[in-house]
Design goal:
4-stranded antiparallel β-sheet; 17% strand
Length: 391
């Protein structure tokens, strides 16, 4: 299994100067290639690929005005062009939007393949650097694992991180268990509810630092554009955002690790989160709950440790279906948190009932491969469509 170990490091002044120059060159070549590919398509209907942009990079290095491109390693520059090609591939496949230009205040990243770094005695030597990166080794890389690539990233808050990608042989499947669980994500008092009846509280990390962020943003708005004080205020705002992201990521990692360790089968809904956040009334709460990151972590951790993650069709009426008799309501507004089945008179908590239905549907899929896409989502009281008799 490939696994990336992420560490923070504190570069020396010489290393930081070289790394900042490298990020600037990557940003420049990426934006120039993106502008040229866009112009070629709209003006000449010509599609430019990765090979043409590599030839352009060689030509740019020969220009007098761009001679500084030779002062940094060529490996991250070429990787930046590969990333641009991947962005266009995802765009044409309908998986992503059109690529955007890189901006300086967003930080940046540089990917070094084996030709761009040296791994010696547990230390990382990047190209053009004579000293190893002063990495804080919070966790040691397993013995016998050799890095295949190293990605250096600078966050908008000015932090430096190194992600070391290795083929980790120490990842082994966990002992099998007979436990299974269904998850129904939420945004109110709980971030998710399980089929066992447990409610996972929503920490709402953004609200905890909302006042502090508001104060920093007000200070940023008062500064003159282009001034040094404005840059300092921008970093202060970025640091508050970094605190929110760190707290949210830490909470999700602990939650997903616990779920994967305790359960053999985990059933969740395959939600269209990109469409859900288009609702302005729910976009903030959904983004703060990080449904997408929750599902992403469950996906790769289940793959690592031999667990089964089953994604239920998003159109499955998990909330409106009675877990006791199977009756489906015609309507169930979001403000209704508890309801009573009109058929069997069973009382349901909306979220727990949905989690139980998701688990039942997931078990049906895992056992017999049944589909959970509803053929009839309306209740009997709403009236079913009757088929005309054959003549």
């Amino acid at each position: 299994m490939e696994k990336a170990y992420r560490y923070r490091f504190y570069p020396t002044p010489e290393q930081e100067q070289l790394l900042r120059r490298t990020l600037g060159c990557i940003r420049l070549t990426y934006n120039k290639a993106l502008a040229y590919r866009t112009e070629s398509w709209y003006e000449r209907s010509e599609r430019i690929g990765y090979g043409e942009t590599c030839s352009m990079l060689t030509a740019w290095k020969k220009e007098e005005e761009l001679a500084f491109l030779n002062e940094v390693s060529s490996v991250p520059l070429q990787q930046g062009l590969r990333n641009l090609q991947a962005a266009f591939t995802n765009f044409f496949a309908g998986r992503a939007k059109y690529p955007n230009f890189k901006k300086k205040h967003n930080g940046g990243s540089a990917q070094f393949t084996k030709a761009g770094f040296r791994w010696k005695d547990g230390q990382v030597f990047l190209a053009k650097c004579t000293e190893p990166l002063p990495i804080r080794w919070s966790k040691q890389i397993p013995q016998g694992c050799v890095p295949s690539s190293i990605t250096v990233r600078m966050t908008p808050a000015g932090r430096w991180y190194a992600s070391i990608l290795v083929d980790d042989l120490t990842i082994q499947p966990l002992p099998k268990t007979d436990k299974a669980i269904g998850l129904d994500v939420g945004i109110t008092s709980s971030i998710a509810r399980t089929s066992n009846g447990d409610k996972i509280a929503n920490p709402k990390h953004f609200n905890k630092l909302r006042k502090k962020l508001k104060r920093k943003q007000k200070a940023l708005a008062r500064k003159f554009k282009g001034s040094k004080n404005r840059e300092k205020a921008r970093v202060q705002v970025a640091r508050v955002y970094a605190q929110i992201v760190d707290a949210r990521t830490d909470f999700l990692h602990k939650l997903t690790t616990q779920l994967v360790r305790e359960n053999q089968t985990i059933a969740v809904e395959d939600l269209a989160i990109e469409n859900l956040v288009k609702n302005q009334k729910l976009a903030f709460a959904i983004s703060d709950a990080s449904w997408g990151e929750l599902i992403r972590q469950l996906t790769y951790k289940c793959q690592w440790y031999g667990r089964d993650l089953i994604k239920i069709d998003r159109w499955f009426p998990s909330s409106k279906r009675c877990g006791n008799c199977g009756h489906v309501l015609s309507k169930l507004p979001l403000n209704v948190r508890e309801w009573k089945c009109p058929k069997c008179r069973a009382h349901h908590d909306r979220d727990i009932n949905a989690a139980k239905n998701i688990l039942a549907a997931g078990q049906a899929v895992s056992v017999c491969g049944a589909t959970v896409r509803p053929e009839q989502s309306k209740s009997e009281s709403a009236g079913a469509l009757k088929q005309k008799p054959k003549s």
